[in-house]
Protein: Diguanylate cyclase (GGDEF)-like protein
Amino acid sequence: RVKAEGRDGYRFFAPDMDESVKLRREIEEDLRAAITREDELCVHYQPQMDGSGGGVIGVEALLRWRHPRRGSLAPAAFVKVAEESGLIGPLTRRVLRDACGVAIAWPGLSVAVNISPVQFRSRTLAAELIAIVRETGARAQQIELEVTESVLLDNDEVVHSTLSALRRAGFRIALDDFGTGYSSLSYLSKFKVDKIKIDRSFIQRLGEADDAAAIVHAVVRLGHAMGLVVTAEGVETGLQHAFLKHAGCNEMQGFLFSEAVPAAALRRLLGRLEQAA
Ligand code: C2E
Ligand code: MG
Ligand code: MG
Ligand code: MG
Structure:
């Protein structure tokens, strides 16, 4: 494949490619080791507010990696590697286990966990997730699984039966980053979900671009017409908040309220957010 770049291409690209291949391999090896350790991988939780911006109704589990040499890494730096190297399964199991602990500690909150599209290729996904929730003693009804639209593109029987099995077990399904994938509205009627999360890119352009406002209004109306909960992600400003509240958005999440914090910091954060409400 390298040679197909042509001779000049080869000479120009080879050093860079070597570097990125090396980096990728290193991340993979380090990740494999990190999964077996207690302290490197940790799950942070970002609050999700009700539509009025008042009470906290849930939290989303977001993975962080305290890499021994590279410092704190965001998922962008390692989730793709995990997906490509078969490590995403163990990672997700770990996040879900942690999330179940939070669900048990906070019976009134919903706890969202991101599931990679890659995992939906496995026929055993639903059984695995159900087993973890059972082992921990949490209730599936409290757990929300976030999947991206790309999952629905694989319109096959595996995705369909996995999603149905998960919903039958009590999990709620949220469509993450809604509006960014190659989404077709027909997927919304083919696959039953409970919630759509309007992608941050639309929220960020509110107030700057008329089309963003039109899209947000339309998605809220579409979602409600289909009986779905509509969440906005990436809410950063009071203006965005006011717009979304007026548009009838059911839930909001974003730095305006809080970034993701370690589970140990949740009690204080939730107390502060409830007081502000
Ligand atoms: P996501 O599921 O859409 O999560 C939301 C991301 O937006 C998080 O980034 C969060 O920190 C960030 N965010 C929240 N509010 C704001 C805001 O107001 N402004 C801005 N600029 N950003 C905001 P994070 O934690 O870096 O995660 C990025 C992506 O990595 C997630 O997007 C999700 O797709 C993936 N991810 C995170 N944790 C996991 C995990 O445990 N498993 C899997 N498979 N993927 C994960
Ligand atoms: Mg998410
Ligand atoms: Mg999202
Ligand atoms: Mg997003």
